[in-house]
Amino acid sequence: xxxxGIEGTAWNLSAAIVNEDDVIAESTRxxxxxxxxxxxxxxxxxxxxxxxxxxxxxxxxxxEKGYSKSDIDAVAFSKGPGLGPCLRIVGTxxxxxxxxxxxxxxxxxxxxxxxxxxLWKTDATDPITLYVSGANSQVLAYEENxxxxxxxxxxxxxxxxxxGNSLDKFARSAGLPHPGGPLVEKYAKNAAEYIxxxxxxxxxxxxxxxxxxxxxxxxxxxxxPNKNNIDEKNETGEKSGEKGEKNGEKGEKNGEKGExxxTVLANVCYSYQETAFAMAVExxxxxxxxxxxxxxxxxxxxxxxxxxxxxxxxxxADRGAKFFVPEKKFMGDNGxxxxxxxxxxxxxxDTLSVEESQVDxxxxxxxxxxxxxxxxxx
Length: 378
Ligand code: ATP
Ligand code: FE2
What we know:
By secondary structure, the protein is an alpha/beta fold. It is built from twelve helices and twelve strands.
C-alpha cells in the first residue's frame, strides 16, 4: 500500500509518500516568521504559495524512484488540530490531489500521527506517549474499548499552553529568535545554578504559561535588579565606555549582554527546562504506574531536546520500563507521519468523501476511533 500525506498545521509544510516500510519520497518548505512568533495568516500564505511546488517536487522524487502516480492508493492530510488558516490550505490541496489521482481522502489527527510515526520508527508496541510540541502537551496511551477498536486516551495534558510555545514565548521575551526551544537548550548548558520557578501539576494535568511568565520575570530581575547595580557592573565591565548609553535598556533587550547577563540567561534557561520537564516526566510516570504499561514513547518537536530525553530515560530505568525515541526528523511536524497514519487508516477502511473532509482546528486525539491496531500488530 502506498499513501501520500500532507502536513501543514503550523510552521512546516511537508508532504511525503510512504509504504508500510519506509518513506519513498518527501518535500518540505518551512515557514520562518520574520519577527515574533508564528502568525497564522502569514503561515497560511506561505503554505498557499508553496504547496504547488511541494507536490510537484514530491511527484518528481517519487517517479525518479521508478514509481508512477497511479501507484498511490490514498491521499492523507492533517485534519487538525492546528491553525485554522493553515489547515484550510492543506485540506484544499489534499482534495485537489485526491480528485486528480481519483484516490480516496484520509483525514488524519495530527497528535495521533505524532504517536503512530513513533510506533513505526521505534520498537515500541504499547507505550505511554509523552507528546510535547509547540501547541500541544499530552500524556496518552492506547486503550481498547471493544475487540480491535479503541482510542488514544489522554491521561494528562496542559490546561493552558503547550510546553514548546511556552519556551518560545519566554525566549522571545529574552530577545531570542523563533523557535526558542532549541536556543533555551543551548543556553541551559552553561548554567551555574538552579533558580526557583513555579512547578504546576494539578492532578494529572500541567500548566506552562505561568512558568514562562515567571522565567521572563526572573531574567529581568536578575539581569537588571536595579539601576545602581547596572552602573556598578558597567564600571567594572570591559566595554564600560560604549555601554554607558544603553544602561536603561540593559537586561530587557538583546543589546550587548555582559558576562553576567549570559550567566543569568543560562541559569534561567536551565531552571526552566528542569522545572517544565520534571512536570512532564512526573505525569508520564504516574500514567505508567496507573496503567501498568512498561514502555514510554517520546513524541513532538520538544522531544528533540536532549535533557528531556535524559530525564525520561532515568525515570524509565528506575521503573524498569523501556524508553523509545524516534529519529529526530520524525519528531517535529513532518509529512511522513501523516502519510503513514493515513496508510494505517486507509487499510482499516477509514476514508472520507470530499463532503466530509472539512478541517477541524480543535480536533482532539481521543475523538479518533482507532480501528487499525490489530492489522498493525500482525
Ligand atoms: P503541534 O501542532 O503538534 O503542537 P508544532 O506545530 O508546534 O506541533 P512541532 O514541530 O511538533 O510543531 O514542535 C515545535 C516546537 O518544538 C517548538 O515550540 C520548538 O521550540 C520546540 N523545540 C524544537 N526543538 C527543541 C529543543 N531542542 N528543545 C526544546 N524545544 C524544542
Ligand atoms: Fe506537531
